[in-house]
Amino acid sequence: MFSKLKRGFTLVEMLVAMAIFVVFVGVILNSYTAIVRSQREANEYRAMYSEAREMFDYLTLQLRDGMVDYGFYGDGGVGGMRDSLVLISKDAAKRIYLTFDPIEENFHVKVNLFDGVNDLDLLSELSFGDEVKVKELSFNVSPVNDPYDSDY
């Protein structure tokens, strides 16, 4: 008797197995690239929120530690706009210009030292990265007029 024991796979079985393997690898690669992409986006958002938090922390600190310069605020802000504010430090050693630029969608901080009579050279200008775009910012000060001015 002739024995017909054949071991191995047929060509059709090999093709089916390879097709299943290719589909499985494709699904895994697709999932991996999606995870890498979302991780990159999460890191970008994290950096943006960090810059925004830094900007608002600085703004909060300046607003708590400063006094409104009503000479600039009473006429509608710097250049007549309410999207800017000038603060004077409590020790009267510096003037802080907080300005929002709606065209560039950016928030600028300029700090000038002054001796009470003359402004000295610009000490520093802070900018908060290109990641943060400020769409709208306005300062509403209460009271609107200088409470220490005898004319009001």
Characterise this structure:
A hairpin with a 4-residue loop joins strand 3 and strand 4. The longest helix is centred in the N-terminal third of the chain and has 55 residues. A 5-stranded antiparallel sheet has the order 1-2-3-4-5. The protein is 39% helix and 23% strand. About 5% of the residues have low confidence. The protein is of the alpha+beta class.
Helix/strand-derived class? alpha+beta
Q: Kindly state the number of beta strands.
A: 5
Shape: rod-shaped
What portion of residues is helical? Answer: 25-40%
How do the SSEs run, as a string of H and E? HEHEEEE
Please indicate the percent range of residues in DSSP E strands (runs of 2 or more).
15-25%
Rounded to an integer in angstroms, the radius of gyration calculated over CA atoms is 32 Å
Enumerate how many helices there are, as a single number: 2
Low-pLDDT residue intervals, each spanning 5 or more residues: 74-81
Record the strand order, biggest sheet: 1-2-3-4-5
Output mean pLDDT. 76
Terminal CA distance reads: 121 Å
Describe the main β-sheet briefly: 5 strands, antiparallel
